[in-house]
Amino acid sequence: MTKRLVVVTAGLGKPSSTRLLADRLATATGRRAEADIQVIELRELANDIAQNMVTGFPSPRLRDAVDAVTSADGLIAVTPVFTGSYSGLFKSFFDVIDKEALAGLPVLIAATGGTARHSLVLEHAMRPLFAYLRAVVVPTAVYAASEDWASDGAGALAGRVDRAASELAALLGARPDRPLGDSNGPEEPGRPADVDDMAVVPFAQQLAALAVEG
C-alpha cells in the first residue's frame, strides 16, 4: 500500500537551499518506497503559527498541516541553521503539535547552513527534539553547507542523501498499513493512531482493590 510521506521545510527564501535539500531527500526516498509526498512550507504558515502560539487556536490551514504530519507514515524535517540551532519557525511549528502525536513516526532530519561548522546542530538540537517527541529518527542525518552544493562537495552530499533515504524507506516499508478509512490520522488530536485505548483506573480505586485482595 502507498505510504504517506510528509516533508516539512523551514526555509525562508525563494528559492531556498533548505527546500532544495528537502526535495532531494523526498525524491531519493520516493525512488525506494511507494509514497505519496506532501511538502509543507512553514514560511507560508508563519503568521498562522504565531497566532496559534498567542491564542491557542490553529487556523484551518495550520490545522491541515498539523493533521498531515500527525497522520503521515513518515516525515522529512529540514531547517536552516539560525544562531547555532534550528530556526524559531521550525521549533514553533513542532511546539504546536501535541507531544504524543509523533510517537513511533519514522523521521529523517536534515539542515542547511553557510558553513560545515554548524553540522552538529543535527545531533545537539534536532535529534534530541524528535527523541523527546518519541519519533524514530533514522541513523543518518543530512547537513548541507554552502560548499556542498558546489561540484567538489556534491558527490559527498549525494551519498549522504541516498543513505538517509534508504534508511527512511526501510522504516516506511516496515510500518504496518493503516486500516481503510483511517486517512485522517488519530481520532483525537495528537493521539498516536497505534496506541491502544486503555481505561484509566484512579489510583485510589487501585489501592482499594489491593486492600480487598490482601
Walk me through the structure.
- This is FMN reductase.
- It comes from Actinacidiphila yanglinensis.
- GO terms for molecular function: oxidoreductase activity.
- Residues 175-196 are annotated as: Disordered.
- Keywords: Flavoprotein, FMN, Oxidoreductase.
- The chain has 214 residues and is α/β, with parallel strands linked by helices.
- The protein has a single domain, classed as 3-Layer(aba) Sandwich (Rossmann fold).
- The protein is 43% helix and 18% strand.
- The protein has seven helices and seven strands; from the N terminus they run βαβααββαβαββαα.
- It has helices at 17-32, 46-55, 60-70, 88-96, 121-132, 151-174, 203-213, and strands at 3-9, 35-41, 74-82, 85-86, 106-113, 136-137, 142-145.
- Helix 1 crosses helix 6 and helix 2 crosses helix 4.
- The longest helix has 24 residues, at 151-174.
CATH architecture: 3-Layer(aba) Sandwich
Order of helices and strands: EHEHHEEHEHEEHH
Oligomerization category of the chains in this entry: single chain
CATH-assigned homologous superfamily: Flavodoxin domain
- Main sheet properties: 7 strands, mixed
Provide the domain count.
1
Number of strands: 7
* Shape field: globular
Low-confidence stretches: 183-201
Number of helices: 7
Mean pLDDT: 86
Rg calculated over all Cα atoms: 19 Å
Beta strand % = 15-25%
> What is the CATH class?
Alpha Beta
Helical fraction equals 40-55%
Structural class: alpha/beta
Question: CATH topology, what is it called?
Answer: Rossmann fold
Rounded to the nearest angstrom, the distance between the terminal CA atoms is 52 Å
Region (Disordered): 175-196
GO molecular function: oxidoreductase activity
Pfam families: FMN_red (PF03358)
Protein name: FMN reductase
